[in-house]
Amino acid sequence: MKRKIGELILIVFLYLIQSTYGRYIEIGGITPNLLIIVPVLFGFLNGKNEGIYVGLVSGLLYDLLFNNIIGFTALIFMYVGYFAGCYYKKYEESEMLFPLLILFIGNMSFELIAYIGNFLLHNKLDILYYMTRIVIPEVVYTIFVTIIIYKPLVFLNAKLESKGRRRVKNFD
Amino acid sequence: MKKKYDFLFTSKSLLIGFTAFCLLFIGVSFFTDKLVTPLRTIVSTVIVPFQKGMNNIGLWTSDKAATLQEISEVMQKNVALQGQVDALVEENNQLKQDSYELTRLRDLYELDEKYPGYTKVGARVIASSPDNWFSTFKIDKGSDDGIEVDMNVIAGGGLVGIVTQVDSTTATVRSIVDDNSNVSGMLINTSELCMIKGDLKLMDSGLIHVTFSDKSSVVRDGDKIVTSNISTKYLEGILVGYLKDVKVDSNNLSQSGYLEPAVNFEHLQEVLVILEKK
Question: Fewer Cβ atoms within 10 Å of its own Cβ: the N or the C terminal residue of chain A?
């Protein structure tokens, strides 16, 4: 229970940062996608179920306040969380590159689907422009932010972990 | 007892269940808002006070930062001015600029005076769209303050956008630079009609696309464009911006170019909502 509340607070906090300070931290008109970081990291660190829950909640929050179509972002974030959860236990926490790779794939596909739905189908076919000006800068910025907040989030995750399911850290 | 339902909580069944749930919501939200509105109201009642608070902190810090910056600027200026004899010339230039600005503002004021009947309500921008694709933002007034969908939003004498979604305490505004925005406009002097389309590709220059369907309309750089009399959603005569680089298209039928919006969208803080619909 404590864990669920902690995760919810984290998601709301990141959402608030993104929606209110987004226009202050933007670089060249691009803001990072902070909310997708949570399902990737929590799925990677705690398994599929956790990734699904966290992705669903953060995606719904993302949808509810701005989009007209509810559930679209939630669906994608949920699958990203599940995908990240598939690699739970296969890698150690200290291997930061792997979650970054999942994040890269997840964020890239999310933005690509958003482009196809909102722009490509509206006859805006210049995919090269939208990729190089919007999608790639956003992904790079998000990865940069993740590198900064990875350690604090791993620490927070360990704090939130209930005693019974603490992860075995040293195998040998 | 608990074991019996365990199969419901494996990740596969969770994934399938939630996928169905999301698809249901997506399907429903194409047709109606009814299912989502209560959910949205609950979430915004929780989130909006925080957003307001965080915005105030942000404004306070940027205010302080600006003051600090100004202090260092003033000191630099002081050093520079002491050694210079042409301080008065500079001051004179400044006054000239002010007088240009004054005449421009008077023009805007006249335009405002022309349509004085609208009642407006001031609102603060509290959040911007979390993605990079759209230029929508939230304001801190909603249906409780009389705001409805399709009301026009202005700031500094120019058109900002239109209300697309309303809660009891907040409203979502789509700005005219948004990629989905289409405004019907006209030249203020000859009433030639044109179409004003937002375009994400112009985000770096801050301009908007404008198309005149008539090749023979006489247009010049800097001509004022206002919202047209035939628009179904925008009230007539609100200043949208100034024309730039209008040329005849390659089809030799229409002319198109750019429009410099009258409003600076970079750091929009306060807007006015016109409480009247067309």
Answer: C
